[in-house]
User: Fold these one by one.
Assistant:
Number 1:
Amino acid sequence: MIGYKNNILMCEDIDIRELTKVYGSPFYLYSKNDILQKIRFLKDIFSSLDDVLIAYAVKAENNLSILKMMVEEGIGADVVSIGESLKYIKAGGDARNIVFSGVAKTEEEIKKSIELNIKRFNIESIPEAVRINNIAKELKKRVKCSIRVNPNVDAHTHEKITTGVNGNKFGVCIKTIIENSNLLKSLDNIEIESLSMHIGSQMTDAEPFYRAILVMRDLINEVNSMGFNITDIDIGGGYGVRYNKDHSGFDFDKFKNESINLLKEMNLKVTTEPGRYFVAESGALIMRVEYVKEELGRKYVILDGGMNDYVRVAMYDAYNEIYPLVKRESVSNYDFVGPICESSDFFAYDRECSVVEEGDYVALLDAGAYGFSMSSNYNSRPLIAQVMADKDKHYIIRKRQTFNEMIESEII
Ligand code: LLP
């Protein structure tokens, strides 16, 4: 819900220029109603299944206000650290709706999660299964688990965010599961009720999902015939969004026709773990144009926000649209760069854009997922503010970090 109205960029019913006067720059801006719309859309996609847990991948954006929205919409949490669990619970979430993924769960995290009574651990290795079993035994508990399977299906996405092919560090290969089935069955303090997968992020094609679920179906049948009692399938997240407005997003029609129908036939409980889909398009990074400089025929727009605030372009060659808050008639081609002392600190090369001048503001669109949550203090830059828009109202959901807050845990 960020778009132009009479050449002025609006978020919901708000002229974003007004927000720069209130909150300074740079800051993240989110559209509340866009997030709600995405949640409700996905709920509808899964509505034909009987027993579904939609567990938001908290890593995508973990602001308490956003987590509270998830809780209010009945959304669970997929977490990868105890910190994420505690944030979800702090936002009002019920621990019984938390699934704990991640390859390196520590003893302390496992113990605390058992005490919190989370729904399930998504186990990523055989040694982890043994460790969870031992800790559960000490606590005299029997805990529910899923084995995260590496189904060896290529998700056709960026190599740094593909997770479900052999050679990734994630999950357990099918062969390893079969070879260790007796060991897994002998672990009395864990109950393996589910098999899970997450084959990659930012998928636009729904077909790899379908192929991976077919692999999972065969594996579930196989392990059940070996004496397991798998009653749930966790299909992970990965639903892609339209970063480039000339491209299409995730093919939900195909997903519904193929994957949802297949899941219906399988007649299991279903978990899914969307992260990016819920928040990416709702968020924009608003930045001020500090300078426009011209060198050897190139025009650089130098912004006050950088790769420490939004690292995805530097890290994954990500594409994000950049819209000036005021669209002028003439256009030019620019390199949009940040202030960080790294050549990789840029947001776009040679991008056609309506003319911008020093003192203008621009919005980097679709920055709501893995934006603020991956930001850092690199170059001693305080973490920036987060602001929520709701129709014609706006409010701060995270204050800009001060210099003192940035250095307070350091010892001199
Ligand atoms: N479940 C598991 C086990 C995951 O590892 C992930 C993401 C998700 C769910 C959520 O995936 P999503 O629906 O957001 O695609 N920082 C990268 C993305 C890393 C994703 C890691 N795992 C980026 O900015 O593109």
Number 2:
Amino acid sequence: MSGFETVIYEKSDAIAFVTLNRPQSLNAFSVRMRDELFEILSAIKADDEVRVVVFKGAGERAFCAGADLKEFLTAPSAIKARRIRAVRDLWRLFLGMPQPLIAALHGYVLGSGMEIALFCDLRIGSPDVVFGLPEVGLGILPGAGGTQTLPRILGLSGAMDMLMTGRRMDAEEALAKGVLNEIVSFGELYPRAKSVAGRITACDPVVIRYAKQAVIKGLDMSLDQGLELEWRLARLARSGPAAGE
Ligand code: CO8
């Protein structure tokens, strides 16, 4: 896959690397980036060779500084936006990705940039990471899953605080509160993400997919239903390859 303008896609040793690539605007999330990410993630989802995906941002200053505020001024009507979301729902696509997703984060991780990171299963950050959801200050709601994903990761009180005040969170706090799995130096960020990805690809891909499925789907179930799901997936994993799960 090639020919993208705002995202770089690379694949090596069963690992897909997806780089947000608009460093001149701190990798701001544009309509074109949304469409390119949708195309790339759809292809990755259907590609059994890809066993883990690493997301990162180009340049030294940001993973992603949120939605492109210059484009925002020319946003389409609510009706058009709803129609686009019906056929190209990037956020549900993120949620339904069968492979583990790793975010390698540095610098600004704001708005939809933070929401992309929250859809990932593991988040590794450099010490300069700054998280924030500034949407309410702009008069809008986080629309890329943040109101749902953040409380599941950070807990209710912390999520309310960030969502309602737009307060930023640095790397140390994010690590202490479980938003980051670990902090490594900027120079170590991609090697570390690659090495974590390598540990995942060393495991049975079917088991990894089922483990992710059990956790993500189980979160929305009662404990009893979750245990049933875990039992069913464990049996399926023992009996062979993923059968349309
Ligand atoms: N959109 C477009 N361009 C941006 C963005 C952005 N979100 N962020 C930074 N840039 C550009 C700047 O305009 C600047 O460009 P230029 O050099 O051409 O002037 C360049 O990136 C560097 O930025 P700064 O000079 O501002 O760098 P600073 O170090 O002074 O500040 C900040 C860095 C604090 C990150 C600052 O740039 C900033 O506050 N950016 C905006 C952050 C923000 O509010 N993002 C939006 C969050 S809301 C969201 O993501 C969900 C919205 C959903 C709406 C969906 C609509 C379709």
Number 3:
Amino acid sequence: MNKQLIIKELEKIVREGHILINEPLKNHTYTMLGGEADFFVMPTTVEEVQAVIRYANQSAVPFTLLGNGSNVIVRDGGIRGIVMSLKQFKDIYSEGNKVIAGSGARIIDASRFALDQSLSGLEFACGIPGTVGGALYMNAGAYGGEIKDCLESALIVDAAGDLYRLPAESFDLSYRTSNIPTKNYIVLEATFCLKQANYDEIKAVMDDLTYKRESKQPLEYPSCGSVFKRPPGYFAGKLIQDSELQGKGIGGAEVSMKHAGFIVNKHNATATEYIAVIEMVQREVKNKFGVELEREVRILGED
Ligand code: FAD
């Protein structure tokens, strides 16, 4: 990989100041872990996104998309090639009872925007720290609601760099999954279909969910939220709690005392330590209860 050549080509595509070289990814992940991205690219237009994808394809430069980094762990060796952030795509607006949000907008902000318009349907997302794009990718959900319930359509760029608007059904949204990873879609914008409702009632629901979240989750430490999916017939947190793993850790990473489903970066952990705690939890729960805990969080990059 000829780094200088890649930089030169990327500079032709995205505007000045929107390519960071050897960018530490701990600045872009909720766990505050991870090595560097060779090229951290922040396009500002659809055409720039398309051109970056086409360039990465043609020149076989590895390509990774990052949202708010709240559901990924980046390994200590970082990520080779291009890491694209869509944080510039952050506009949120409404048309009647629809809220339209750029993929880089925080889903929390889309939820607050809906409240301001007295639109109900995105209350569940008021504390999910990801972007709109990241929320679609994994059909984010909480407290009985999920993206699938209110998504109408999304604007996407496919692996070849072509632009489409697709209806919600085309994403096969189900419990914490979609077909976005297999299709390699890049979400640029989402349209949510909501219902007019009473402002105070929407706000009361959001206040209650915020209280629940703040009282139960260790939000004072960096983490990636719930590390594991809910195994059929069980709760991951309860299995971890009953395996007496809370407070146990490796290096600076440990299973949260406040919420057993969370692993926190308590004292300047490395990604290697954090991942070792994940594997320890999977092993112990399997030994004790015979249940395989499947990770919800994605691990990216190299050691
Ligand atoms: P990232 O973590 O950056 O990326 C995750 C994946 O999404 C990556 O593979 C990335 O390539 C892909 N992706 C990102 N943007 C796009 C895009 N525009 N197009 C296509 N793919 C994209 N999740 C819940 O569901 N419910 C919760 O209640 C919840 N609570 C959390 C609490 C805390 C404290 C934390 C840290 C996390 C929590 N999460 C929760 C997890 C996380 O916030 C969600 O999974 C969120 O949807 C991830 O979005 P992101 O932008 O951070 O994505």
Number 4:
Amino acid sequence: MITAIRGFNDILPGDSEIWRHIEESAYRIFSTYGFSEIKLPIVEKTELFLRSIGETTDIVEKEMYTFPDRHGDLLTLRPEGTASAVRAYIEHKLYTAPVTKLYYTGPMFRYERPQKGRYRQFYQIGAEVLGDDSPRADAEALEMLMRLFGRINLKGVTLQINSLGCPDCRPVYKEKLLNFLKDKTGELCENCVRRIDTNPLRALDCKSPGCIEATKNAPSIIESLCENCKTHFEKVQYYLKLSGLTPALNPRMVRGLDYYTKTTFEITAEGLGSQNTVAAGGRYDGLVSELGGPKTPCFGFAIGIERVALILKEEGIESRPLSVFISLGTEAEAKGVELVSGWREKGIRVVEEFSEGPLKNRMKRADRLGARYVIILGENELNSGVVAIKDMVAATQETLPWDKIAQRISAQ
Ligand code: HAM
């Protein structure tokens, strides 16, 4: 038997309905905030990711799927979407509009150790606001994200924020942190020691027990922010409060990508174990100019669809219940064609059970098909203009007129 590659998953029926529910809810909400979809390629020139994500990040150092094509050009399966969105923004001169709001969805690829909630091919829904330096843009994007999580009923959601400063104040903090860490190199892991001069902030994010212990009392980046970054960060918190959001401050939060400036954030949810970050992102005011475009302040985020879907599945959400229709006898069968067609017109997800035989067996088949509701039309029902409808989860049965069925099912 040939199986799928480890870390690359099939998304099967049953799960795909939950995925669609998440994606459609996101598109609907994002569009009310003025976002439009951009479809991006999944392969880009390797150089794009080296220059945007940063050469000393885990992603670039050890997680990219990079290969030469038949002409020897070095290509990479995208590990994330922001770099591509920014490349497209510059390439197609989208910056002629004062603000551009884009969202995208699709697979990303990282050579990570697979475990629950962490895969080598995983899907993100990403959103980017390009051309807005206002702290309101940060807060609004976060509000939109939290609105989505509220709408799909994601439980135990926590928002953590930090500010990583700007090219003026981050070097000052880096120096402070470096001086602090220099005395502790004996406790740090090999990786962090190697990166200490180029990227000392990584040590704050490292999961090795030695690094956690060594950085316990490290200086806080929030206390090192310049006036401009400090004011921006305070305003973001003010606007978040106006939206009814109360984030936790986490000065140790270092994102795994180097392009961030000022606000960064992570959202975690309950029920996933260690891979519990369901969405993350922040501001990246330098990336567009870094990649050759005009100076453009930006804010964005990405949601990990597998992780959100895992939680919703464990919560037992049913986004589109399946109904199975059973008709008994030739006349009911004829009326059934009309009824089923009418329900489908109204958006009811209904399949007809065609087998012959005792009702008991057909009910069993309906159950194995995954029916939430079984709708039965026999001779008596036909004569009275009703159907019997059985709720397979609640184990209840009722009789309803034909024109009330759609309403009854979609009310769930
Ligand atoms: P990221 O934090 O690398 O950010 O990924 C965002 C989300 O993708 C994570 O919070 C997680 O839910 C999901 N994710 C990441 N890696 C995996 C994996 N191996 N398996 C399953 N899910 C995963 C970015 O990618 C940035 N581009 C976000 C951004 C957009 N920043 C600004 N704009």
